[in-house]
Amino acid sequence: MKIGVDYYPEQWDRALWKADSDLMAKIGVKLVRIGEFAWSKLEPRDGQFDFQWLDEAISTFSRHAIGIVLCTPTSCPPLWMYETYPDIVQVGADGRRIQTGIRGHRCLNAPMFLYYAKRITEQLARRYANNPAIAAWQIDNEIEAYPCTCETCRGLFRDWLIDKYDTLENINAAFGNSVWSGEYSDIAQIKPPTSYPRAWQNPALCLDFARFSSDTAVKFVSDMAQIIKRENPRAKVTTNTFFCENTPDFYKLFSMLDFTSYDNYPPVRISGDDNNPNSHAFELDFMRGLKQRNFWVMEQLSGATGSWAPMGPTPKPGQIKGYAMQAMAHGADTVMHFRWRTANKGAEMFWHGLLDHSNVPSRRFKEFAELCREASKLSVIETTELVSDVAILYSPENDWAFRIQPQTEGFNYLEQLRYFHAAFTRYGTNVDIISPTADLSKYKAVVAPAMYVYDKASAENIYRYVIKGGTLIMTNRSGVKDQCNNCIMEPLPTVYREMIGAEVKEYDPIGNTEQTIADFAGNKFTCRQWCDILEVTTARAYAEYKDSFYAGSAAVTMNRYCSGVTYYVGTICNMDFYESFAGNIMKQTGIPRLKDLPRGVEVTTRTNGLDDYIFFFNNSEEEADITLPKAMYSIIDGGERETLTLKPFGMDIVRK
Ligand code: GAL
């Protein structure tokens, strides 16, 4: 397994490069990522390129056989470009042009920006794509589907709409523009949603604009990747992503790239609140699901974070190593730490790296060196992957649509997925988070939370899975919207009603009010946010409401449909419900459960088809003891174990 670091040669004296590369080699760093913000050093003036310093930096590291992840610098155009072409800067939803001087504020559709972005990417690709020191390429940095409203984007959005709907009449019909006299009589009247937040804007317009903004980001990344591939078709190209405000369609983004990479900043504070699962296991499984393949962490927590925001606490002993190993447990094959040394200048001088301002290796640095040592012994898991019995479906369209209309106080789409993820993983089973159109046939249970916006391919895929004998769990706010983000005029959950065997008679968006449900065995659970008042047709009640005028109505149902089984959870509960529910589903479907795992201990399995490697990660501040079903070998130190004692944030990996 490879451990790397993010490094900024442009920020340090050359003398330090050598000392740093020597130290990296000594402790076992295998990769450095460089260049993502260095455009003004690479092209100080229009068309005047300087690659000499980059050549030198690359050879400083490659001398030690440290591989390079070379980035394209398009997130930070130099000021000369902004000065000459002010309209390459994004315009916000309020119609104002963003101020320059920070980063990431270039419009990905601006013709002059694209001209320069292609040129610098081409220059880099020509010079380095066949250099054996280059292990991989990163396009730009944390690209977002920023909803830019500049003139260029407005024009392209209009073209995008005409391309999709053909005529203005069709657009008017799709958007329901007869509401509030919003009918377009001329194409020039079409503009992106221009107030922020999006209150009062037409949800149909907003969803199409989110789709358009995502397509813009995906096209930019794929165009840049093609430039690199032209020079070397075998080059490995990615972009680093994160859970941002303006999420692109992650599936489309990475479908054009060789692998997924993710910037991983798990929380240092452990909440201790069971209803607020704080593990980044969810994020990691999410990233693995984007290509249904192992991935890289391109930035990993290394110290106290902050700068523009107040600093958060420094990682506790065990977290630097433990969180990197946790990423591997969920399918990361490479983990790069952000950053080697803390900046002493610029906006991020308090977002700490591995080395502090003192430049003296500290506790965190020593733990990182230990990580490098241990990771180098884990080559046996390099060819392994996670195979899961459970899948949770994530849809970018549902994500966007819920951001546009948040439904009820406290409702959060990703949280719906998180609850189920936390519940199933509590029993030590692997969980995939995948697209609703992915092949579901291999899963013993599939959770389809809040399938809000209808999509034909997804609905057919889900039906196919159940018809062929799958066990499906669906939740409230499913089948609500059509493709245009308008409400479907049928009893909920509309297209899924037949399969669910129940329908929603009325719903009650109770927000943060707490109510009670009881399951078939009489166990009581708190519910909140949303109550679908269900009437069963072919289904049976799994749980019913205990309060309000709908006491006695079904809250959760179970139905046999063709060869499969469907559950519908009409409300949102505390974690104890999800744990009990997931436990029952696992029992019904024969998914093995580890029942006595101490709280906070996370278990995943990576396999190469012959051998299984079980990762035990103690994501808590208490020491944890685990009894293994039989004696197993630890691949960390080769010792045979019947019990594991894990320190806080400690990890052991045993061969089954
Ligand atoms: C990431 C970004 C890095 C750095 C880091 C810490 O989002 O890619 O460049 O800014 O956060 O803030």
From TrEMBL:
Sequence positions that bind substrate: R103, N141, W308
Record key words, sorted: Glycosidase, Hydrolase, Metal-binding, Zinc
Pfam family, one: Glyco_hydro_42C
One annotated GO molecular function: beta-galactosidase activity
Residues covered by the Beta-galactosidase trimerisation domain: 389-591
Reaction it catalyzes: Hydrolysis of terminal non-reducing beta-D-galactose residues in beta-D-galactosides
GO annotation, cellular component aspect: beta-galactosidase complex
GO biological process: galactose metabolic process
Nucleotide-binding listed as a keyword: no
Domain Beta-galactosidase C-terminal: 600-656
Enzyme Commission code: 3.2.1.23
Family: Belongs to the glycosyl hydrolase 42 family.
The name this protein goes by in its record: Beta-galactosidase
Binding site for Zn(2+): C107, C148, C150, C153
Sequence ranges assigned to domain Glycoside hydrolase family 42 N-terminal in this UniProt record: 6-377
Enzyme class: hydrolase
Catalytic residues (positions): E142 (proton donor), E299 (nucleophile)
